Each structure stands twice: as C-alpha cells, then as structure tokens.
Amino acid sequence: MGRARRRAYPADPRLPRSRAQLAGFGRGLGKETQPNAWIIAPDCRGHGDSGWVGAGGYYYFPDYVFDLDCVVRELGATSFNLIGHSMGGTISLLYAGTFPTRVSKLVLIEGIGPVGMSFSDAPLRMGRWISEVNERGRRHFRQYSSVEAGANQLRQTNPRLSPAMALDLAGAAMKQNDKGKWIWKFDPLHRTAAPQPFYTAQALEFLRRIECPVLIIDGKESRQIRRTDKQERYDVITNHRCVAIDGAGHMVHQDNPEQLAEVVANFLES
C-alpha cells in the first residue's frame, strides 16, 4: 500500500446516491488531509452506477460487507481508514468487527445501525416484506420531466440543500428511461422493508470486536441524535468519541460538508 490511504464511503438507500453526493465533503477532506491521501468512494450494489441484483434477488447487509471486502482485496489494501454514512455506517461497523486488524480508524456518520428489533418482530417483518415486494417491487419509482424536477424533489426532502448542489446531485443520480423520462438510478427494491430485522444483541458482538479508534458523528438537527438506544452500542466500543455537527440533519455531508471534513480530517491525522 505504501503511504497512500484508501478510504471507502458506503452509501445509504433511502435517497438516490452516487459519488457526487460526497463531492463537497470529499473535496474538503482532500484539502484537509495529506496530499497523498487516496479517497475511494464506491457505489454500493443497487446504487449509483453499480448493477442491480437479478430477478428474485434482494439486498442484505452481508452482501454489502462482501462487496466492500472485494474492493479492499482488489486494491490490495492491508490497512485503511473507513468512513460510512447511515447504511454505510452499518456496513462499516460490520466490516470493522469482522476484520478488526484491517481498519486503522473508523468514522461512523449517523451510522451506528438501525433501531434494534426483537425476535417477535421477525414474522410480521417477513410478511411486510413479501407484501411490499409483490405490490410494489421495482414498479414503484417516480418519473420526472427533467433533472431540474429531480433536483426540486431533493430540496423538498432536504431543504438545507442549495439549488446548485441539488442540481449536481440529481445530474449524477438520475438517468433517462426508454420513454425519455428521468428516474433515479437506485434500485426501487430499496424502498421496500427489508425482511431481516436488525438485532441489537448481534450488533453489539461486532462493535465490541472493533479495535481501532472510532469517531461517531451526528447532525445536531437529526432525529438520530435523539435516539435513546445508541448508548448501549457506544459502551461496548473500546476507543470512541462522539461529535455533533452544527447546522446538519441526517445528511451531514450535504448540510455542512466543510465542518464535517475538518472534523474527520483532524481525527484521521491525529
């Protein structure tokens, strides 16, 4: 690996994602870190320009962790810093818990894992998933007359987005279908409820295996910061600290990329 640092930025499924969504944060991080820092930002399967699963397939966290490992192996990285946002944070903590000696430092941005569920939730969750896939599946997606219309939708979802950034994001995260309409690149299956509940007890076993320093970042205006179940997860991480970013909700890298880049760079370079 030499002196180059390889950093992976997994994505989140609830909104369209692509490398462009991290552009502002990525540029800021590049300025804040050493000149030879190498930032790798892959699109998770079913997101951005990555392929979709075949007919009858679905998306599970083990798949994402496997994909991340494939990226690491392809790059020949023996140790690296890992950053994940939201779903990408869950992928990152699972990876770091699976391969604790490979990750030098871990940054979890609004990404300590979903709210935990119980075993009794599993049957209803399975039924909900089957119903949603049958009723909606890949048929449930919005079509837009232009990229600008998609950008307006992004700003409705996140009013903190500037018009320019929204347009950049939409331009990278949308494509035209065979009817000339603009649609999001992500697989509509991501809008269905996953069949497998997220179990806190299982997550704790991954978290307690993490050996590297961990930086946990939340947006001060995010609903995630008010969750009462997160402390149990924090307590099992050997070496961690928490930071809240001003003027940011869940999409911290969009809302305040400059402060986020500064905080992350200081942690990585310390």
Structural account:
It contains ten helices and eight strands. Strand 1 (5-7), helix 1 and strand 2 form a beta-alpha-beta unit. It has 270 residues and is α/β, with parallel strands linked by helices. The relative contact order is 0.18. Helices cover 39% and strands 14% of the residues.
Q: Structural class, from secondary structure content? A: alpha/beta
Main beta-sheet strand count, sense and barrel state: 4 strands, parallel
List unreliable stretches of 5+ residues.
Answer: 1-21
Instruction: Report, as a whole number of angstroms, the end-to-end distance.
Output: 20 Å
The ordered string of helix (H) and strand (E) elements is: EHEHEHEHHHEEHEHEHH
Strand content: 5-15%
Radius of gyration: 18 Å
Task: List the main descriptive attributes of the protein structure presented here.
270 residues, alpha/beta, globular, four-stranded parallel beta sheet, two-stranded parallel ribbon, disordered N terminus, 14% strand
Quick overview:
The protein is of the alpha/beta class.
What order do the helices and strands come in, and which of them pair?
Elements: E1 5-7, H1 23-32, E2 37-39, H2 61-75, E3 80-85, H3 87-98, E4 103-109, H4 122-135, H5 147-157, H6 163-173, E5 174-176, E6 182-184, H7 200-207, E7 214-219, H8 230-235, E8 240-245, H9 252-255, H10 257-269
Parallel strand pairs: 1-2, 3-4, 4-7, 7-8
Antiparallel strand pairs: 5-6
